[in-house]
């Protein structure tokens, strides 16, 4: 039995419209594939973040084409790209900008920092002190920056892609849970397969390294975001999302009593909101006008893994957030 919400929507007409509006997805993927070998999940995640207006935390070893992928995406959509290397001596002013005294005019003028870009790569975000991290996270949340007494809006679209190195944790400043929660997705990057790595070698030995072409502009991305919001989500899918998040908070209520002592805290309401947004974007990438359970499951790990706090007991038994999410998805009833 369909809900009153779905009765007022012509699903087939909506599906056809979304299919047409999402045609540029294939164009972006084709251009990305010219430069990036493999890393399909990272490319899809970048597009989900872009279409959902959500920031991304990338975790992976050095040399996995994180910077190249983001720079290539910026070229394709004609966006301004900036890379900021986070170091222990970085100051908030190095990030957002500062006031500079002009001797000729005898007045202070604003010098904007590298955060004023469409795509910002915050490389090794956990290498800088809390003061710098919080300056970036304020810009992420408010999408504006205050320098002196003036407040400046950041460009639209504005997407922060922060990277963390899973090794070499000496001298780092781990992001607090409340700040990690601001990231829509946490994407774990893996090494390429043997055949992919062989292709990477060949590509890097070419006289001319492949280049992506500019195919879109930022206005088209902003327009596409509004289309993504129109992707239909049934009430049953909404309940499915809520059940997944609640299972991370109250595992015993969902037949997962074994995780009761292993979960310190579960997903926040941001988890539910971002799971719904990312599922809609995932459906859009599949060029479909409605969300199915597979869309939710497809984005669940990236949305939830940084929002489940583990106890010492879980760490002692080598239980990871991904392991818990797998069990939750196995237990929660699929609509």
Task: Please tell me about this protein's structure.
The radius of gyration is 21 Å and the shape is globular. The protein is an alpha/beta fold and 335 residues long. The protein has helices at 4-7, 11-21, 24-35, 40-52, 66-76, 92-96, 130-142, 177-180, 194-204, 218-229, 235-249, 269-285, 293-304, 312-316, 321-331, and strands at 56-59, 81-85, 97-102, 107-112, 119-123, 144-147, 150-153, 159-164, 185-188, 263-265, 309-310.
Task: Indicate the topology.
Blueprint: H1 4-7, H2 11-21, H3 24-35, H4 40-52, E1 56-59, H5 66-76, E2 81-85, H6 92-96, E3 97-102, E4 107-112, E5 119-123, H7 130-142, E6 144-147, E7 150-153, E8 159-164, H8 177-180, E9 185-188, H9 194-204, H10 218-229, H11 235-249, E10 263-265, H12 269-285, H13 293-304, E11 309-310, H14 312-316, H15 321-331
Parallel strand pairs: 1-8, 1-9, 2-5, 5-8
Antiparallel strand pairs: 3-4, 6-7, 10-11
